[in-house]
Amino acid sequence: MSEPVLPQGAGYGVVVGIGLFFSAFMLLITAIQARYTAFSPKNSEEFTSASRSVKPGLIASGIVSAWTWAATLLQSSAVAYKFGISGPWWYGAGATVQVLLFAMLAAKLKLNAPYAHTWLEIVGARWGKTAHLVFMFFGLATNIIVSSMLILGGSATVTDLTGMSTLAACFLIPLGVAIYVVVGGMRSTLLCDYTHTTVLFAIILTFVFTVYSTSDKIGSPRKMHELLAAASTAAPIAGNAHGSYLTIRSKNGLIFGVINIIGNFATVFQDQAYWQRAIASRPASTVKAYLLGGLAWFAIPFTFATTLGLAAVALRGDPDMRVLSAADVSAGLPAAAAASALLGQAGAAALLVLLFLAVTSACSAELIAVSSLLTYDVYKTYINPKATEEQILRVGHGAVVAYAVICGLAGLIFFYIGVSMGWLYTFMGVILGSGVAPIALCITWSKANKWGCISGAIAGFVAGIVAWLVTTSTLNGGVINVVTSGGDFEMLAGNLASIGVGAIVAVVSSLIWPDDFDWETTRAINMPSRGTGKTDEKVADSDSDDKKRAASVKESVAGDSFSGSEEEDELDPVALTKAFKFATYSSLALFVVLILLIPLPLFFSSHIFGVGGLTGWVAVGIAWTFLSAISVVIYPLYESRQALGQIATGIYKDIFTKGSGKFVTNTAQATTA
Ligand SMILES: NC(N)=O
């Protein structure tokens, strides 16, 4: 291993320091939220679901943040390093379409189970205990794999750049996050995600402008083209047209693309984190949030990897660029190496902060997701069905901390057995792919057959493992180990068998023995008794200060609260059916554009990008990144201007008339809502 670019203290400083900073920040946000708004995380609905009241910009920002893993930055750059310009495209497009298509599931969630806390509650209500337990295995396995990838990617980079102990990084990363999740719950986690996403875009744009505009090592798309063309001549890529880095015609790039699409279907559809954002969303704008979030996210891996992944190739031979081994690439280190070569310690530090923010915000989504599954699907379903509000909240908090420790342990175990982030990334579809179709059918199709879907998930799981191992053995002379099993064809076989068998068994059996489900049972999940609002409507305290503020009550309510009656209005089945149709048409159209119309003609024509082509490609990436930043950084501020005004007014009042700014709801509304 080469000398770390940064001192060890920088690693601890970022991991512990930024972790503590965000914990303090979260305490502040939570205190502000409790004092100046209608929402308090002391309520379990608010803790896990943000009272189902969050607006689309903030949900989109939360989706971007939860979907920006360590792999989004590191693996995307690694595939750019290995396959050239096709890698960032397949990474970005191949993981965006699932979020877009999830908009359909999100619309159906609001239509068919509007008050559920978790996707497993829906499975349990529709198909009973066996299905609940089988799909819980898939759900929790998804969370463990995603969290392990976060910890592996995060710790490998921190260790590489600073020399910090991997063991310490594996535990300190999730524990720091656990503190702020326990303090803040879902809404504050979304607010923290928002701040992370803002900084993330700022750092990504800094790297983009360094590479394509200011760096004296590269500095322009033209120079990048020249360096990539030279790299293609010096070390042609097997399977690429003319061995070039500048073509979409890449056989291994395409194989990665297929694996990527399958694995990401598995991790979006079965990860409570993405369901949870749909659950937290206002019903009328859920579809918008997912379409916006998906499109905004695309820019992150595409532009980042087109920048630092390609820069790592272009800078080969530069005295500041370290030589990368196959293991370094699998660990996702090309981006870190390029950042250090371009900007020295400043580049390494910026990458470290970027990665840490990505890892912590995705990790916070995983922690609160697993906490919800353990609370509602394990504790409340099987251990204490009559659990009180207080017990649920306590278990939710305990589950966050327990899962943080489990994440650290899982990351460490994978690290010691030699499984890297890149290996896990291509493996995820092998064991998780079979659940994709059964779960999608459970929430969207009244004819989905219970036993067909359960057996599809199990049969696909077995088929995936068998196909993966048999292919590994066949292609490697009977040798099965971490290295041989991580090959492109080996992983492709496992991924295809898993998702294919799961889908075929579920669909065919449902066509032969169709169910006729009327959704009444799922709509009844957690249904509030008539007239109960979903917000934490705080009845005015009896203290004299609050009485004095009676006059300001109405304005306070006009801020960002979301009453039960507003929610009922937004749950109008006609409007939600329309939203589902819109989600279907738009997400399928975007799927066709991103996965078929753009890359396939470029692939089959074996086109090699010239200077103009590369410049246009990079320009699209930069423009998309700016539009994304506007959507998930500026737009959430705009849509919440009233609430921000309400909070600012409260703080102003508190400053000038001590105690007068506190939020109090209209007592008349509180008792009748
Ligand atoms: N979230 C992903 N696949 O980067």
UniProtKB/TrEMBL annotation:
Its main location: membrane. It comes from the Eukaryota. It is a multi-pass membrane protein. One of its GO terms (molecular function) is urea transmembrane transporter activity. Residues 528-553 are annotated as: Disordered. The chain crosses the membrane at residues 12-36, 57-77, 89-109, 130-152, 164-183, 195-215, 253-269, 289-311, 349-374, 395-417, 423-444, 451-471, 491-513, 588-610, 616-638. It is found in: Membrane. Belongs to the sodium:solute symporter (SSF) (TC 2.A.21) family. This is Urea transporter. It comes from Hypholoma sublateritium (strain FD-334 SS-4). The lineage of its organism: Eukaryota, Fungi, Dikarya, Basidiomycota, Agaricomycotina.
